[in-house]
Each structure stands twice: as C-alpha cells, then as structure tokens.
Amino acid sequence: MTRIADGLPLHEIGDQLHRIVDELAEKFHGVFGRDTVQRFVTETYDLLDAQATVRVHLATLTARFAKQRLTDFGRVQGLTTVDVPQVLFICVHNVGRSQMAAALLEHHAFGKVAVRSAGSRPQGDIPSVITEALGELRIPLTEAFPKPLTDEVVRAADVVVTMGCGDACPVYPGKRYLDWDVADPAGASPSEVRRIRDDVDRRIRELVSELVGD
C-alpha cells in the first residue's frame, strides 16, 4: 500500500478530505456549490502540505484554513454579509510579527474586527518565546499556525498591514495599506520579544481606535 510522509495511506487522506468537503458543503449550502468547496479544500491541502514539516494535524488545519478561505471568497463575491472591517497582517514566515499582531487585534477588538494573518513564505512553527510573551498578557496562541498568502484573503481585507515581506503582497484599489517597521522577533531574547510585543500592541491599539472608534 502506498503511503505518504505522515504515515497515512493515501486512501485515508482521501477519506479525510471527503469528510471535510461534506462538512463545508453543508456549512456553505446556498452560498457555494460542492464543486467550489471541493476545489478550495483540495487546493488548501496542497498548499499546507507543501510547507508542512509535521503532517499529523494536516487534515485539521486544512479544514480550518479552507473554511477561512471560503468565508473570505464569499466576502469578496458579495455572497455573505459583511458586518465588520477585516484586517490582514502579513510577514515572511507567519510565525512571528503577523501572528503576534493578529492575536493582539483579536484581543483588543472584541469581535468588532475580523482578523487574518499570512506569510509570503510561510514555514516553521511559532516559537515558544512568542507564545510566552503573549501569554503574559493572557492572550492564548494555541490554534495559530503559518498560512500561505492567498488572493482571496487580500481581496477580502479592508486594511492590509505588511511587516517586512517586501513586495510580495498584491495591491488592489480601494484598500488601505500600512507598512509597519517592526523588528523581527526571530532569534530574539525574551526581553527583546517583549519590547517588540509592546511596540505592536501600541500600533494595534491605535488601529482599533481608528477602525471602531473605541
């Protein structure tokens, strides 16, 4: 029997993806047809598989990321209700600055802003020094994982915040683009990561005030 890198037979991967398609097709019933859901699930699995170093949770991450992508695609197409502004944070690997900024915005916005993050070249795992620095503010980062930058997430965003990813982000009219000069926490000491966290936190508080007026 042919097997892949995570040790699962190919037919088991197929079964898992089929179940994900079933669940998402039901969730997005009346918005997207099954063929569209199937396309997004398959593409999402391939995107995550290409960057994965550990594949044991790949199906779970595929389900979560495909759901997010379909939500954003529906927003772009005008097929779903848009109640709050959406902010996208982009850095290179999506394991440091962009994850930190997304978590802080989630924390301060109280659901009044939709939050996304992505990497121009996503790879690796979120360092424990990042999760610990956020944990000191009682902000969990338990479900975060690096995600590739996809077209629909940029199109769905009202504000795109880049942090050291160069020209990787496509530019679309009608969006607000911010380029934050934030130090890279990769390899930094805990005290330096706290300084970066506080710098990002200050910027996030200002952004929340602008977006929701609080």
TrEMBL record:
GO-annotated biological processes: response to arsenic-containing substance
InterPro entries for this protein: Phosphatase-like_N, Ptyr_pPase, Ptyr_pPase_sf
Keywords, alphabetical: Arsenical resistance
Domain Phosphotyrosine protein phosphatase I: 85-210
tRNA-binding in keyword set: no
rRNA processing is among the record's keywords: no
Protein name from the UniProt record: Arsenate reductase ArsC
Organism: Umezawaea endophytica
